Amino acid sequence: MKIGYPCINWTIGCSSGSTFRLRSYSESRLKKTIKNNIDCLLKILQFNAERNIFFFRITSDLVPFASHPVNNFNWKGCFASNFKEIGDFIKKNGIRISMHPDQFTLINSVREDVFERSVKELEYHASILDLMQLDTDAKIQIHAGGVYDNKQHSTDRFVERFSKLDNSLRLRLVVENDDRLYNLNDCIEISNKVGVPVLFDVFHHSINATAASTNQALQLSSRTWNKKSDSVPMVDYSSRNLNGPSRQHADSIDIEDFKKFLLDTEPFNFDVMLEIKDKEKSAAKAIEAANQDIRLNIA
DNA sequence: AGGTGTCAAGCGTCC
DNA sequence: GGACGCTTGACACCT
Q: Does residue A55 belong to any structural domain of this protein?
């Protein structure tokens, strides 16, 4: 089991997702920002490796305006060797990588233009992982999308659109249960039709639940990671912020809840992404708890 | 230097 | 039909 956190490291003091306003777009600004972002990304990965944090989500802002028409700069060519260097570090250290395009990426949209932009955005995400020469166990997680007043039609549209995507893209995509529209069963249904692995999100499942217990959910989702090249399943874990609105993530990990989660999910093996605000701090705590847990099992 | 309104993108909900 | 939340940081403009 690898444990990690998404996108931001609060300790190091650099950001791998710096961006700027469209109004201030220029090629030199873009170039400078990308360089800073990927330099920072390598620093974060080194920081993580030194602390046994072997799972990381790369921010979608690594290359600002990557799929925007304003950007016709050849950033892939310009930074190919930098990406390769990071990829080498990732592989050497056995780091698992995910990416998560934001809510504008909708392959089941009723609008053709939204679909087309979404494909471009997905291709951007895949090109990052390709430039790093990572295997297809590095995943891009998306949600099923909108309902558009007819869930069955919208599910079918997802299936149809997904099937037409390039194979190189399909091999990287996984679908995650969301907090309102497509629950675990909906994702499993999609998976049964197109073979896409299902990334189980524990927190979303608690808000948008099916009858499945945590253990059953792991069983159901794990089965969908059935290609050797997918590697072990990814799972998103977070606890809710008890002081804030119901959908907000917690500030720091509730370690007792996390231990309970580890017990609940035995004997399944998977990699856990901690969607918690204090990022690397909670990851370190979770890794410590998991190691203690293993020692207890051995003893 | 510090404060703050706003940011490429969509959908669903609420009024 | 329009504003707002999502989830949240930080850019960029203002003073």
A: yes
